[in-house]
C-alpha cells in the first residue's frame, strides 16, 4: 500500500510554472458582488432578510452573480436560510471576503502559466460572489464563478456551528487562488465519453492536476492526506465501480460522507491517473492538450499506465 502511494509523488509545493510565462495575458476579476452582499445584509432584519437579499443583492449584482444564483443559490429565501443558520460563520466571513483583492496577482500568474503550457487557453472573467455554502466554484460559458463563502475557515468557535462536510471542505481565504485555477481548467475542458464514474473522476482529477501545475496546489489537500497511504486499497475499490454510472460513493456526496471516509475521493483517483499520464508523456504540451480533451476515458486510463502499475505485484 505504501509503495503504491509513492509511485507518483505529488508536485512540489514550491511552485514554478513548467514553461516560461507570458506577460501580456489579460484577465478580468469582478469583486463588486462581495460588497453588494454585505451592504444588503446590513440593510436587512431577520424578518426582511430574504426579500432584501433578493432585491438588493441577487437582482442588483453582476451577470456572473445572476448565473451563480441560477446554478447554485436559488433565491433570497434560500440564501437567507443559510446565513441565519450560520450567523457566526458569516460574521467572520465579512473580513476574509474583503481580502480577495490581495490575491489577484497570484491568480493572474496562474492564468499566465496556463497560457504558457496551453497556448489555446480561453481566459474567462472571474466573478467572486457570496453564496449559500454549497459551491466553491463553477463555470458557465464565459465566467468562472467563485463562491467566496466557502473560504471563511476561522477559529474553532466560528467553525463549531458547521456540519461534518463543511468542516472538512471550508478553506482559509488564502486557498482561493487554487479553486480559481481548478475552475479555470474546467473552462478549458472538452471531454466526451461521459456518464461513467471514470469519466467524472477524470474530469475533476484533470482539473485538480493541471490546476496544480499552474498554481502550485490542488484544491483537495485533505483528500491527499487521507488517501496517500490508502492509495492501492482505494484504487481496487474504485476499479470495481469505475465503468458504472453511480457516483454516490466517490463524488459530490457532501454531507453523506462518513468520518471514516471523506467525500469526493474520486477527485484523488482522477488526479493520480492524470498525474501518471502527464509524467509518462514525453511532450508535456501535448499531454496537457490531450488531458483537456479526453474522448475515451478507458483508453486514457490505459495510456496513462496507472492501472497497470497499480495492479503490479
Order of helices and strands: HEHHHHHHEEEHHHHHHHHHH
Q: Overall mean pLDDT score?
A: 91
Structural class: mainly alpha
Largest sheet, described in full?
Answer: 4 strands, mixed
Range of helix content: 40-55%
Low-confidence stretches: 1-14
By DSSP (H or I, 4+ residues per run), the number of helices equals: 17
Strand order of the largest sheet: 1-2-4-3
Q: Please report which band the strand proportion falls in: under 5%, 5-15%, 15-25%, 25-35%, 35-45% or over 45%.
A: under 5%
* First and last CA, distance: 11 Å
Overall morphology: globular
* Rg estimate, integer Å: 20 Å
- Tell me the count of domains: 2
Number of strands: 4
Report on the architecture of this protein:
This protein is mainly alpha-helical and 313 residues long. It folds into 2 domains: 29-180, no CATH class; 190-311, no CATH class. Helix content is 54%, strand content 5%. It has helices at residues 2-5, 32-43, 49-58, 63-73, 76-85, 87-97, 104-117, 156-159, 164-169, 176-188, 197-215, 221-227, 231-241, 265-280, 284-291, 297-304, 306-311; strands spanning 29-30, 125-129, 137-139, 143-147. It has a 4-stranded mixed beta sheet, with helices on both faces. α10 crosses α11 (197-215), α11 packs across α14 and α14 (265-280) packs across α16. The chain starts with a helix and ends with a helix.
